[in-house]
Design goal:
CATH class of the largest domain: Alpha Beta
Number of strands: 9
Number of helices: 11
Largest sheet: 6 strands, parallel
CATH architecture of the largest domain: 3-Layer(aba) Sandwich
Shape: elongated
CATH topology of the largest domain: Rossmann fold
Radius of gyration: 19 Å
CATH superfamily of the largest domain: TPP-binding domain
Strand order of the largest sheet: 3-2-1-7-8-9
Distance between the termini: 34 Å
Bound molecules: zinc ion
Order of helices and strands: HEHHHHHEHEEEHEHEHEEH
Strand content: 15-25%
Number of domains: 2
Length: about 260
């Protein structure tokens, strides 16, 4: 039921040229790059949050039953965030990072697919965390979901930190939870250091994340947006391509 692509003046060739001309590119990704891997856009109609109510951070911390529900969801895989494979769009981004063209990837996604496609973890700046593992809310100790799942399914145990006994939660940023300071600071520094900022698959409506493209533009960087639908910031961009991410990026950043 996808609409016909909008007629825009930019082409995949223009995108290839913008990437070629960039000396220090930053790639910014949203849900649209991962829908091609079968991961639903959780804010769209029919997305995860239209089917089940989000559990707010404050409720997770305060209420054991909310924690139980959150873990049941996480282990059921209903959100569809984990266990998927990177697609052509992720692989094109990975090539840009590997070649040194792209300094880093800032992502709103929690699906770990940039790392799975070969981008080093230290070059992925996750604004909303990561759903593929869990961490302690007190000491940040990392816990693997597979380990936690055993106790939860066998004995109904809600996970606690093996190191400090604190509450453990999937490493995503929940509704009501503060944006993580360190990734936000890294994303800002990267944005201000780039000469081209490439948005892939974000409708750019969720702030503060959507502030980064504007920050880059105001700082003098070229702004390119590739998204199936028009975005809030199309009017500010040097290049707008309403296109599928995988095919567009495969053409603009082809494998050798
Ligand atoms: Zn801990």
């Amino acid at each position: 039921m996808s609409a016909a692509p909008s007629r825009t003046s930019s082409t995949r060739t223009d995108l290839a040229r913008l990437i070629a001309d960039a000396r220090r590119l930053v790639v910014f990704t949203g849900a649209g790059i991962s829908t091609e891997s079968g991961i639903p856009d959780f804010r769209s109609p029919g997305g995860v949050w239209s089917q089940m109510k989000p559990i707010y951070f404050q409720d997770f911390v305060a209420d054991p039953e909310k924690r139980r529900e959150a873990w049941a969801r996480a282990f059921s895989g209903r959100a569809g965030w984990t266990g998927r494979e990177p697609n052509a769009g992720h692989r094109a981004v990975a090539r840009l990072v590997a070649s040194g063209k792209a300094a880093c990837v800032i992502t709103q996604n929690v699906d770990n697919l940039h790392q799975a496609s070969g981008v080093p973890a230290d070059k992925v700046i996750e604004l909303h965390g990561n759903a593929s593992y869990a961490s302690c809310l007190e000491c940040a100790e990392r816990h693997e979901l597979a380990d936690l799942k055993v106790g939860f399914e066998k004995a109904g145990e809600i996970p606690y930190c093996r190191r400090c006994g604190g509450l453990v939660k999937t490493a995503t940023i929940s509704f009501g939870q503060q944006m993580p300071a360190e990734p936000m600071a890294r994303a800002e520094a990267a944005t201000l250091a780039c000469d081209a900022f490439l948005v892939l698959g974000s409708s750019l409506v969720v702030y503060p994340a959507a502030g980064f493209p504007l920050m880059a533009r105001r700082n003098g960087a070229k702004l390119a947006i590739v998204n199936r639908e028009p975005t809030e910031l199309d009017g500010y961009a040097d290049l707008v391509l309403h296109d599928e991410i995988g095919p567009a990026m495969s053409a603009a950043a082809p494998a050798n």
